[in-house]
């Protein structure tokens, strides 16, 4: 879906890249559910809210235990291992793509996870508001599927993301969540994600962000505790681990895919960063879910 600048288009609701699931409207077939329990790379933003009960999700090999009022979000390209169905669980799941996000009137910084915290614990009042909006979206996308204007769906999605953005930063940052440093750090993270396999230099990234290398170093250090170079390498090695685990590519092919001209250098860097060789990592692949 393409949205041209300067031109408003009235979209049909089923053109939106947005989907919601809940205990009232789960995935339809058992076969579909079984397929969705397999590890997969997310193509959209993913949000799950636990209204009642407990469950553990796994994202990028990290476990996230969730219980009443806990919310987990994940970004495109992260590896999600969904949990098996839990009894007596009340939940909402929401997926939406970049094109849908682009239709909203403002950006939501929490979605790029600048504070490296993918869970949000909602206070009682916020939890009730979020559950209400999830419930409305759930109704719109099922009961009123062909009767609700796209603008209304986007309005409720905007309301939901605004609530989550506020909750994300409330206990983790100053009230001025869109201060210059945070905005620049978010732009840095987006630049890393967008150009990861091109491996641009830190100088090039700093220049693109209209920053000196010293200023970029200070900002990235403030939010991650590490240097821009180390952050980039960590992100690159995380992507290497994802591809080793969830694809059938060889180590040599992977090195070229990630922008390395020398596969041997990639192997040395991987060993230095992860403590194990890439070839040692390959035999642990298991996509069977067993």
From TrEMBL:
Organism: Chitinophaga dinghuensis
One annotated GO molecular function: sequence-specific DNA binding
Transmembrane segments: none
Pfam family, one: HTH_18
Gene3D superfamilies: Homeodomain-like
Protein name (record): AraC-like DNA-binding protein
Keyword Nucleus: no
Every HTH araC/xylS-type domain range: 192-284
Domain of life according to the entry: Bacteria
SUPFAM superfamilies reported in the protein's UniProt record: Homeodomain-like (SSF46689)
UniProt keywords, alphabetically: DNA-binding, Transcription, Transcription regulation
InterPro entries to which the protein is assigned, alphabetical: Homeodomain-like_sf, HTH_AraC
């Amino acid at each position: 879906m393409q949205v041209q600048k300067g031109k408003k288009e009235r979209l049909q609701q089923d053109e939106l890249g947005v989907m919601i699931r809940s205990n009232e409207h789960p995935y339809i077939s058992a076969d579909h559910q079984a397929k969705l329990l397999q590890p997969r790379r997310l193509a959209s933003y993913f949000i799950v809210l636990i209204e009642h009960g407990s469950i553990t999700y796994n994202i990028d090999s990290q476990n996230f235990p969730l219980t009443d009022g806990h919310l987990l979000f994940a970004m495109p390209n992260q590896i999600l291992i969904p949990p098996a169905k839990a009894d007596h669980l009340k939940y909402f799941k929401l997926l939406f793509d970049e094109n849908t996000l682009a239709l909203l009137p403002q950006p939501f910084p929490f979605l790029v996870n600048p504070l490296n915290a993918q869970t949000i614990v909602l206070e009682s009042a916020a939890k009730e508001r979020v559950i209400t909006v999830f419930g409305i979206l759930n109704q719109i996308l099922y009961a009123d599927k062909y009767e609700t204007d796209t603008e209304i769906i986007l309005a409720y999605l905007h309301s939901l993301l605004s609530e989550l953005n506020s909750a994300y930063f409330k206990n983790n940052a100053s009230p001025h969540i869109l201060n210059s440093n945070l905005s620049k750090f978010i732009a840095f993270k987006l630049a890393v994600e967008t150009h990861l396999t091109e491996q641009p230099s830190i100088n090039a990234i700093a220049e693109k962000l209209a920053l000196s290398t010293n200023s970029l170093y200070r900002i990235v250090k403030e939010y991650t505790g590490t240097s821009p170079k180390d952050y980039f390498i960590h992100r690159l090695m995380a992507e290497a681990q994802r591809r080793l685990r969830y694809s059938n590519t060889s180590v040599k092919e992977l090195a070229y895919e990630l922008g390395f001209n020398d596969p041997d250098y990639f192997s040395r860097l991987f060993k230095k960063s992860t403590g194990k060789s890439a070839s040692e990592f390959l035999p642990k692949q298991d996509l069977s879910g067993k």
